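Async update (no meeting this week)

Hi team, since we skipped the sync, here's where things stand on the single-chain job. The sequence we agreed to prioritize is pasted below, unchanged from the tracker. I ran it this morning and attached the output directly underneath so nobody has to dig for it. Comments welcome in thread, and please keep replies under the output.
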Amino acid sequence: MTYLMEEFEDTDESIWCKFIHYDPRSHSILLEDLKENGYSVVPRQKGLDLDHAILALNSLGRYHGMAKVLEQREIISKDDYKPYTLFTDLKLVKSYLYGSISNLSKVMKNSWGPEWEDTANKLKISFEPFAAKWMSMGTVQSETNFTVLNHGDFWSNNMMFKYDFQKRPIGVKFLDYQAPHYNTPCIDLSYFMYLGIQPPVRRSNYQFLLKTYHDSLVRTLDKFGFTGTKPTLEDITDTMKRLEFFGLTYFAVSYPNLTCTSSEALDFEKVIATGGKEGFNEDVLKKPEMIEKLGPDIIDFVERHVSGLNQS
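Output:
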């Protein structure tokens, strides 16, 4: 991507840190120290506000756009990347995802108050329809759909921001490229919208944020000479709607663990070893502030998606 930017004399700041050195003997990679250059991570408990979200989505559009141009030039290939583990590892789906939903249902019924009892009961779903629905989210719809190289773990803790003298975010660098995969760009987009942005900010600005991403993606594709079919904003919106089950499920499952103040939110090894029966810290879900953050989306999740699974 650096060479692509140089070819087109793109003077925008890169969205990745600089490579310094690789030692083949120790398999060590040395990268630039972003902290020394004024970058810092937004605390995961806080999440991103609107200004940070806009900058991150503009940069995600650039990343996806440049990756698509490199694919068209046959510099990178979708065949070089494995399917996304979140959609293919059945043990992970049953232990972590389904186990988390079951744990949420239990805590909600026992601790959230009588007004949540009906929602808690609806969350008691069978594993088979849940797993089938979840794993269908990872299916690439067709060869004609717009697909890109996804980052794979795109949320607020995997990016660092730089600020101006008024403390406004003006630059961002992406980190942790360990889960790349090919699919619709809306996998990264959903992941970020539900895990990286403060829930009230996402809910209040959802369509604006999608447009922010789409504008950046199309602008980048045009800048670097992409000649294929570009997705419309309607395409992105429709795909996000199709992936809503993915976004809401992962929000309900992971957001509490990623944003809580406890350092022992989850014993992941125990969760996997017990098939999702043990390993969850129920106290994380009992905090009033967590109930406030999760509540509106949990209601949407149950009404739009879980009710249908219970009837199947």
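Quick observations from my side:
The longest strand covers residues 169-174.
The chain has a mean pLDDT of 93.
Reply here if anything looks off.
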